[in-house]
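Record format v2
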Amino acid sequence: MTDRIGVLGSGSYTPSRVMTNADWSALIDTTDEWIVTRTGIHERRFAADDETTLDLAANAAEKALADAGLTADDLDEIIVASDTPEVYTPDTAAYLQHRLGAREITAYDLGGSGCAGFVLALDIAKTRVQAVSKRILVVGVELISRLMNWTDRATCVLFGDAAGAVVIGSGAGVKAELLAVTAGTDGSAADILTLETGGTRRPFSLAEAKKGGQHDIVMNGREVYRQAVHRMSEAAEKVLAQAGRLKEEIALVIPHQANLRIIDAVRSKLGLREEQVYVNVDRYGNTGSATVPLALDEARREGRIDPGDLVVLTAFGAGFHWAAAALQF
Ligand code: UT7
C-alpha cells in the first residue's frame, strides 16, 4: 500500500493594515451598504508600504513549516501560486527559496491561474510527491492592492492582500489526506477576467502608464459570478465522486472567497447548511490564490475541523480555471 499523501502543516498571514468599506467610501463613489449587499465584504487587509509579495509568502510559509514540525531544510520543492509576483522575472519561488534558507531545490511559480492557483498547485504537488519529491511547500499569495486601479470602483473594493501555505508530504505526519484533486480550464472566456499589463499584447510602457489605467483589471462581473457558481459546485461534486465519497459525508466546504453571494449559491447547489461552509470573505475580501489556504488554516486554528472530517476545497479564477480537492482529516 502506498503512503497517504496530504497536508503536514498549514500557515497563513494577513497584513495588519485594515481597509474598511468606510475607508473606501471616503476615496471613491461607493457605500458600505453597496459593498456589503453585493459582496458580503466588510473589510480587507492591505500590505504595508514596505511589505512585498515575498514578505507575505515567507510569513505564511514559516508558520506552515512550524505547524508541520519541519524546517526549510526539510523541503524538497516549492510552488508559489500568485498573479501578483515579487518581480516579473525571476519568480517569487526563487526569492522564497533563498529567504527561507531552503536547500537548492526545485522551486517555481504557478502564475496566471488567478484565484484557482493554489488548489491547482495542490494537484501538481500530490502527483509530484507520488513521483519525485518528499515534501513540497505550496503557497498561495496575492498583494493585489499595489497593482489594481484604486479609482475603478467596480473592482477595487473586492480585493485584499494575504498569503496562505501548506506543506504537502506523505507518511505519519499527514494531518489531512488529499483523497483526490480535480482541475479544469475553459480558455474560451480568457478575456472576461484579465490583468493585461506587462504581457506582449500590452507591454509596460511609460507613455501608457502616464495615461493611467494600465493596471485595470478587466472583468465582466456578472459572467464571472455565473461561471464561478457553476464551476465551483461542479468541481466539488466531481472531486467527491473521484474520492468515492458522498455529499452527505461533507463536514466542511472551503470555497474560494470572492463574494458571499457566490458562496451562498454554491452552498445551496450542494445542498449544504450554513455551518458546513467556511466564510471569511467579510474580513479579508477576495485575496485571490490566498483565499483557500488562508481559510483552511483559519478553520483549523479556530477548531472548525475535527479529526475524521471530510473537507472539500473548491476554487475558481481567471482563465477560466477551476479546481477542487477532497481532504480527509
Ligand atoms: O475571483 C474572481 C474575481 N471576481 C469575482 O469574483 C467577481 C464576481 N462578480 C461579482 O462578485 C459581482 O458581479 C460584483 C460584486 C462585481 C458586482 O455585483 P453585481 O450585482 O453584478 O453588480 P453590477 O456589476 O451589475 O453593478 C450594479 C451597479 C452598476 O450601476 P448601474 O449601471 O446599475 O447604475 C454599477 O455601476 O452597481 C454599480 N457599482 C457600484 N456602486 C457602488 C459597481 N461597483 C460599485 C461600487 N459602489 N463599488
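The chain has a mean pLDDT of 95.
The CA atoms of residues 30 and 210 lie 25 Å apart.
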